[in-house]
Amino acid sequence: xxxxxxxxxxxxxxxxxxxxxxxxxxxxxxxxxxxxxxxxxxxxxxxxxxxxxxxxxxxxxxxxxxxxxxxxxxxxxxxxxxxxxxxxxxxxxxxxxxxxxxxxxxxxxxxxxxxxxxxxxxxxxxxxxxxxxxxxxxxxxxxxxxxxxxxxxxxxxxxxxxxxxxxxxxxxxxxxxxxxxxxxxxxxxxxxxxxxxxxxxxxxxxxxxxxxxxxxxxxxxxxxxxxxxxxxxxxxxxxxxxxxxxxxxxxxxxxxxxxxxxxxxxxxxxxxxxxxxxxxxxxxxxxxxxxxxxxxxxxxxxxxxxxxxxxxxxxxxxxxxxxxxxxxxxxxxxxxxxxxxxxxxxxxxxxxxxxxxxxxxxxxxxxxxxxxxxxxxxxxxxxxxxxxxxxxxxxxxxxxxxxxxxxxxxxxxxxxxxxxxxxxxxxxxxxxxxxxxxxxxxxxxxxxxxxxxxxxxxxxxxxxxxxxxxxxxxxxxxxxxxxxxxxx
Amino acid sequence: xxxxxxxxxxxxxxxxxxxxxxxxxxxxxxxxxxxxxxxxxxxxxxxxxxxxxxxxxxxxxxxxxxxxxxxxxxxxxxxxxxxxxxxxxxxxxxxxxxxxxxxxxxxxxxxxxxxxxxxxxxxxxxxxxxxxxxxxxxxxxxxxxxxxxxxxxxxxxxxxxxxxxxxxxxxxxxxxxxxxxxxxxxxxxxxxxxxxxxxxxxxxxxxxxxxxxxxxxxxxxxxxxxxxxxxxxxxxxxxxxxxxxxxxxxxxxxxxxxxxxxxxxxxxxxxxxxxxxxxxxxxxxxxxxxxxxxxxxxxxxxxxxxxxxxxxxxxxxxxxxxxxxxxxxxxxxxxxxxxxxxxxxxxxxxxxxxxxxxxxxxxxxxxxxxxxxxxxxxxxxxxxxxxxxxxxxxxxxxxxxxxxxxxxxxxxxxxxxxxxxxxxxxxxxxxxxxxxxxxxxxxxxxxxxxxxxxxxxxxxxxxxxxxxxxxxxxxxxxxxxxxxxxxx
Lengths: 488, 488
Description:
2 copies of one chain form a homodimer.
Chain A: H1 5-22, H2 27-44, H3 46-56, H4 60-83, E1 90-92, E2 105-111, E3 115-118, H5 132-140, E4 144-147, H6 153-169, E5 177-180, H7 185-193, E6 199-203, H8 206-218, E7 225-228, E8 235-237, H9 239-258, E9 270-274, H10 277-291, E10 296-297, H11 301-315, E11 321-325, E12 334-335, E13 338-343, H12 344-349, E14 361-367, H13 370-379, E15 383-389, H14 392-397, H15 399-406, E16 409-414, E17 453-459, E18 480-482, E19 485-487
Parallel strand pairs in A: 1-18, 3-4, 3-6, 4-5, 6-7, 8-9, 8-15, 9-14, 13-14, 15-16
Antiparallel strand pairs in A: 1-2, 2-17, 10-12, 11-13, 18-19
Helix pairs in contact in A: 2-4, 2-6, 3-4, 3-6, 4-5, 9-10, 13-15
């Protein structure tokens, strides 16, 4: 049952009250709470995997590894939270001997306030209820309200119970976490527009994310909305590399395009090459591989319907050629792996072909030459990732392409596949619009904590009244920039 | 003469072309360019001061110190640019021995693209043509298009010439900097909405900044708009402190409220106290001081007209009392220093009284008790600064007030005045909306560079093809987080 406006108001008010308690907890206390959530998720055991299997059609092995990733994220972000490095502490001590005299000023990040999290259909654990956005918000010092994803509400309830238990273990107020049901857009709208909501995290479709972004900006007091939305994750085949390894690359990509029915935000949806014998060889091998792919059930009927429609729309465009489809019979809800092809000129001219087809689908863009490949990259929207299949010579010789591609993506992969998003500080999961609504932040890795914090400078405060993070003796031993020098 | 759309298109196209050259310059090359700008500004000499005096009515001494500040900013941000610390480099080396194996990933900030800067009326040097926004953009690796402030177009032209000379000295393409005239909103709109514009910096009124913010968000591809808009900079008088030092605080604040005709974004526009004999003493002393303030000319006729109207509107509100005005006669364009007073209940109920009156004006809010003071703080919008006049005991005893105030501001001053914004890493000049459009960033201090950059992760690149910032040997010797450890 959808939450009523009264229920949303209560959740928001409780979150607001909890904020003023939770924000004062030490970094260690926040980290302990997060580790406790990880532990409580582990304690749920097989019930969690079985429930998610029923709700998402994802295989057990995938769900087990996603659960491990979720637990790793909570522990990893907890450790980074505790390190204090992300607080960006800057201390400038007073100086009476300059004109004008300088007061003592000390700056650190403080939490924004309650964060509303919309979970992802395709990651019931790692980017949902206790996923990356929630972990980052808790690390930053923010209470969280999760809008339950209707695709896996039971799974979400189990995880929510784990968070609630962890909160109780640490004597945290009820409002630190709320779990709000709602399939209707009105629930999401009320949550995003609530005066006590200070930021939003979202992973999903372009239409959904853009709507939240607009709501966030249209408020009397606008708030940041971090939506990770849509990406084609283009792959560029450079001449020397494709001449050396066409068959091997084709086999690698057949796997990446069809992994878990292609239901990844980093699924490679476009492959761009120069139309020559090497590309023909690549296409032939890729086609053979795709024909032998066994159909897999998609996450839910809505996503399946969407795949069927978007795939049909793309294939029906004039000049788009269907190159290969899986020959294996597919049942209802099972996605048929598909490779299409189009000329660069037609691709550039047709914006529909620039849109993500969420599922095991990829379109090959044939260029006349490398100049046209640069034109294709220039015509592309912002992307989470871009991949160059290239020798070192290729990278050096085709600098214009490399620079253009670098400018449209958040992660630039050389000779690999975009699927498989490592959790770590070095990861950037966020690219120019429409990949995300704010390319300056990441939604994977502990740097994502910063999305939910802002700096506050304390001017002329006596040491004993400052937060520990800013005291001269550095009692919690964190990295700080003191009088322009980074030190511990 | 306002720029035509054709001229704007040319400036934008040149900036876009320059971007692909400038972004590849080393940190040292960018820093040298910035230092060269500082030098060329110095070379202009007295002509710059004289021109600005005519255009802004600001006194020579103030303009000289602002010029020094501008030069300091360029040199200081250049040094921080060169340090590379702001690039937030994170390196996670490959690890084959984990499941799944980890690829080598290295992340750093890269520039967003051309930045449009709208200068401030009240800072013809430090927050205009070669001011903080421009310096940050150049440090980040972004070309700049300045929309000339019509209030000081000749001053701006002189500074623009200095930038152009510095660019020529460093063989930089023409598009690295453009200077666009335009009093009409259409010029600003065309600049913000241009496809090649990737970010906007603005300092000015709420109406102006909010308009740019909305334009930025309404684009097919939204861009960040950093507008520093309006702030009342509330001052809270706590019981023990005001009991000890009422007269001294009143004298300090008479100066801060009226400095340069109150034309600072950090001008203290609200003073909040508990209505008792101590507050009466404060008001009496403040009133005597204000009566003796000599009127000063405002920056221009538009700002003067605005002051007269906003001041009159505030004073005409029911229950608002005029407490003191300067007794000295004022000529046309000279602002009359004014102190008003209102009860906390009336202040809370009347949103008009929460709006900035740009000039030497401040309203005293009388509270029944400290609980009502918390209610006043709770009712306040976001602020650049807030100030507590408080003893240590006051801070400890009135935690609810301190926490509420911390939550609405970017800089929290204890026993000082908000005017005087030190340039340094510890400075936060940016607060919750409507003080600025993005409280997560600062527009003063070298941390402002980050506004114009975004992270890009390089996955699986051989060392020899990586930028110097990311090479394993750390050839430019910058701080980096390698396998979760911060080091050089």
